[in-house]
Amino acid sequence: MRLFSYLLLALAGPLSPFSSTLAQSPSASPTDSLPPHITRLTWFGERADWRHDGKRFVFLNRAYGDVYEYDFDTKRITPCTDHFKHFGFVRALYLSNGNLLLSGPKDNFDRTDKQDRQRARDASQLYVLDKSFTQPPVPLGVQCNEGPAVSRHRLRIAWTHGEQDHISVADLAEVDGKLQLQNARVVLRTSDFPESERPRKWIETQNFVPPNDSQLTITAYEIQGSENTETYLFDLENRRLTNLSRSSDRYEECEGIFPDGKFTLVESAERQHRWPLVDLYRLSLDGSGTKQRLTFFTEVRDWKAAEGTISDDGRFMLFQDGRGGMEAGQGFSIYLYDFEKAAAAR
Q1: Cα dist. 123→104, 161, 179, 306 in Å?
Q2: Largest CA distance in the chain
Q3: Neighbour count for residue 113 (Cβ, 10 Å)
Q4: Cα 309 from Cα 293, distance rounded (Å)
Q5: How confident is the model at residue 327 (pLDDT cuts 50, 70, 90)?
Q6: Among the residues of 152-248, which ranges form H helices?
Q7: Residue 9 above 60 pLDDT?
Q8: What percent of the chain has pLDDT above 70?
Q9: 196-201: long-range contacts, CB 8 A cutoff, minimum separation 24
């Protein structure tokens, strides 16, 4: 079967790796017919993030769960957060010095209640966990509503807070032996968007754009009160917003950034819906709206591919699967996508 590659333009019509019979079967899974450039690494987990040397990655076992680290050489999975009391985490990201930035609720909540779970997510706090995984994390004292962004080159972070309606940037520094945020400032609000493109309420930061971290990739949800979602580039210096996905009828949420600073991943769906089933695409940061499809999990009934993240050398992508009707960000396995193998299989 002729396989697709990440270099193949979407307009060229890459072939799906899934047969029509498999795609229609309600009991089918994308893992039943994975192409050679996609490898399943775990049978549980969600929201992976690469360590800078590419030898390991962290992930959550579940939403409001524990953090684990996967070692590519040994295939060993090590718990990172089981040595201290906590109420679970919704994000774990490597800082430039190897420590982990964690986001999670600071108070107990009813895990069986949908509304209380959402309240806990919205009220999450940021923490820094030492890379030895032997000490309790240091609280940074700020709310983080959905994903923080982490510089790959310096101790700088960005996060969405409030009612998911504004984004701040700050530096991390140790002062008198205590880790704290410095130079914290609000850089973007929903009201800063042009009126014709203003989200109803929600925005979310995703990544600093390498190599100089002067830009952020941003997702804006429900443009003008519709179900249209767009990916933006925000320039921290001149405060300019650029619509990258440029679509009036698709769901386009940005994910991992490519190290060349020219592309980002997006979760994309061909129909308007607040939380649709999505696949991963490679989107240009030049504002042209050019995309290249990478995954085809949505061609198997009720499945999606999401939460993609790119290794620092640009050779690999980690992503997760998901099912329709589940909690946002929920995943059941972590996969490795090899760009070189995908290109060779064209």
Answers
A1: 8, 9, 21, 24
A2: 64
A3: 11
A4: 15
A5: confident
A6: none
A7: no
A8: 91
A9: 196/224, 197/223, 197/224, 197/230, 197/241, 197/243, 198/223, 198/224, 199/223, 200/224, 200/225, 201/163, 201/164, 201/165
CA-wise closest residue to 99 among 66, 74, 136: 136
Domains, the chain, with CATH or none: 10-344 (2.120.10.60)
Residue 220: alpha-carbon gap to chain centroid: 14
CA 161 to CA 144: how far, in whole Å? Answer: 5
Q: Is the Cβ–Cβ distance between 159 and 186 less than 8 Å?
A: no
The residue type of 150 is V
Residue pointed to by tokens 């979310």: 204
Average pLDDT, the chain: 91
Percent of the chain surpassing pLDDT 90: 81
pTM: 0.92
User: What's the angle, vertex CA 109, arms to CA 43 and CA 143, rounded to 5?
Assistant: 90
171 contacts: CB under 8 Å, gap ≥ 6: 154, 155, 156, 181, 182, 183
